[in-house]
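Let us practice reading a record.
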Amino acid sequence: MSAPFFHLEKLLEQRFQIIGDHASRDRDPEAHLHQLKSVSEALMKEHDALRGNLPAQLNHFMTQASYSKALEFIKALNSSADPS
């Protein structure tokens, strides 16, 4: 069984990876910006699709674009759900 909000978590991680890729940004700023815009749009769509099923705090983080807090929340949720 996959972790709750797996796709949302992966999109958040991808966004932070793109932001942190300074070599890509320096090499081709326009392509870098396009990648960031694309993942940001995907995040908004995923948030809209999940909005009714998100815990209130996670929904708040996503609504306020507090993406680092949202990612931390999901990781904490997944670790508490891990039976090992």
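A brief commentary: Residues 18 and 36 are 6 Å apart (CA to CA).
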